[in-house]
Every structure is written in structure tokens, then in C-alpha cells.
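This entry is retained here.
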Amino acid sequence: MTEFAKAVAKQLDRRQRRRRLLVVAVAITAIVLAVLYLRCGRGWGLGGKGAGSGTAPGTADASPHRCAIRVAAHGLTVDGVAASRDEVVAACKATTGADVVVTGEARQGDWDDLRAALEAAHVAVFLRER
């Protein structure tokens, strides 16, 4: 009978240990979640919008602006607006370069002429073919 009592005592001790471990794990999880909520704000972003507007007076946007050119079968577009080759070169000359997408149906001669005009105007070209 004492063997049975010892086995029951061990089982109860294991249950109590598991419960204690579960309570500690839940408490640690709650503390971590509370810290994350207080630190990061609502949602799972990196702190929300912040206090400022994101712009300082007298500063310009630091990101480089490149014009977006698309060479397709129907013609050339710059920043989503249809344009001639000379208009494309003039628009891109005022920027830091040109992001060019050449579609599969575009005429090779159109792209060759545009590339030559951009190179003559010293416009940096970043090419993507589709």
C-alpha cells in the first residue's frame, strides 16, 4: 500500500509542477505582450505614426526621383502619360535617371532610338524587359 501512496504522491507532485510552470509561462507571456503593446502601440507595426508630420521646413525629399518610361507597341509613355521621344528625353533630363520598361511587343527600333537619345542627353538608364 505504501508503494501506491508513493506513486500517487509523485503524480500529484508532477501535476503541481506542471501547473506552476503553466502559470509562470502565462505570466511571462502576459508581461511580454504588455511591454510590446506599450512600446509599439496598436497593431503589430513598429510604433505607429509617431508625433511629427514627417517633413521638416526647408528640406527636400531625399529620395532620388527617376522618370518611369514604358516602351510598348502603342508608343512611349513617361510617368504614365503618352509622349514623343523628345518629350521623354526632356522630362527625364530634369531627373536623376530613367526607369525603362520595354515590353515584349515593342519595336526594337523604338527602343534603340530612345536609348541613343537618352545617352546623348546623359540620362542614366535602368532597364527592365518584360
Remarks:
- The beta strands are 67-72, 75-78, 81-83, 98-102, 125-129.
- The chain has three helices and five strands.
